[in-house]
Amino acid sequence: MGARHVHEENGNMVGYLVRRLLQGILTLVLVTLIVFVLVNVAPGGPASIMRPDMTPAERQALTVQLGLDRPLPVRYAAWLRGAVMGNLGTSLSSNLPVNGQIAQRLPNTAELAILTLIVSVGLGIILGIAAARHRGRIADYLVNVVSVAGLSVPVFWFALLLILLFSVTWHWLPASGLSTGSSFDVGDRALHAVMPVVVLSLATLPTVIRFARSSMLEALTQDYVRTARSKGLANVRIVYVHVLRNALIPVISIVGVLVPRLLGGAVITETVFGWPGMGQLMVQAASARDYPMVMGITVVVTLVVVVMNLAVDLLYSVVDPRVRVM
Fold first, then answer.
1. CB pairs under 8 A, 24+ apart, for 18-27?
2. Is residue 53 classed as helix, strand or coil in its secondary structure?
3. What are phi and psi of 8, to 5 degrees?
4. Which residues, given as ranges, of the chain have pLDDT below 50?
């Protein structure tokens, strides 16, 4: 019976992975199709980059280069075929491969995202636990104020406020960029990342706080907590040894929700702080009407979100034996 049960679980896992991979592929295709259609039919589409002073020969050459002489479904099929083969096209603004430019910027955005997850998840769990332990008291109200402020304050306004205070007024932190010099310096890189990470954390922290608080409150009402208290265990031991471990398991699922929010927030944050990442590259590509770059970034961002959500689902099923993929 034991071997049969393990075999059934393995079969369920494989089937689940296959279904999720198919869903991920379908999501990629639908997202890229929607963006491709919007880019081509919206005002200011690819045809708008033709200058009035261009000769007929130049117009014809650019039309062929952009594929505007072919129907829209044919153009999308050609682009999709190239994307599947790993060729995202050539940037119209720099005339360089889209793949290479994205590969240069992606690690910078990943650095911000990872640091922000560490800060927001770590601090959010601490504040969520404090709010749950002191429910209805001053600590709980203060944490709620922080959550509401994080949800209410515009990201760009908060970023400009930090620059005004810590860079312009007090000269404590660099205002923009990835580093001061060309050589890699961990300390200098960390100083440049402080304000972007704080701004991104403000946008994601409230979600973690509320999730950690609700999970902690639910765990505190379980039977094993009452049993532990009836045995005379100290409240601190009950909370941090028994309750905390079970309450933090659901928090894992919040990572899948935070990743799209981080990538969206990076567009504003990287632009304000001059951080050379994917968000800044997207703004530059959209401003320059660099449509191959816009499509390339769309593919990469969608792929990251799909992979992260799949990883979170699998990790959740591993750390919590009560959860089984079906």
1. 20/310, 20/313, 21/310, 24/306, 24/307, 24/310, 27/302, 27/306
2. coil
3. -65, -40
4. 1-2
Contacts of 66 (CB under 8 A, 6+ apart): 46, 47
Contact 143, 213 (CB under 8 A): yes
**What Rg, from alpha-carbon coordinates, does the chain have?**
25
The pTM assigned to this predicted structure is: 0.85
Burial degree of 8 (CB within 10 A; 0-12, 13-18, 19+): exposed
Tokens of 279: 């968000």
DSSP 184-212: --HHHHHHHHHHHHHHHHHHHHHHHHHHH
Residues in the chain: 326
Hey, what amino acid is at 8? E
Output the CA torsion sign for 67, 73, 74, 77.
Answer: positive
Tokens of 18: 């296959």
Tell me if 193 sits within 8 A of 222, measured CB to CB. no
- Per the CB < 8 A criterion, the answer to whether 262 and 204 are in contact is yes
What pLDDT is attached to residue 1? 47
pLDDT tens per residue, range 288-311: 888 889 999 999 999 998 888 888
Residue-wise pLDDT tens digits, 32-59: 999 998 888 877 666 666 666 667 777 7
Name residue 97's beta-bridge partners: 90
Cβ-based neighbours of 90, under 8 Å, separated by 6 or more: 96, 97, 98, 292
Positive or negative, the Cα torsion across 21, 26, 31, 37?
Answer: positive
Give CA separation, 286 vs 8, 126, 158, 267, 292, in Å: 49, 39, 24, 11, 10
The DSSP H or E segment spanning 123 is helix 98-133
CA–CA dist 269, 271 (Å, integer): 5
Residue 241's pLDDT is: 77
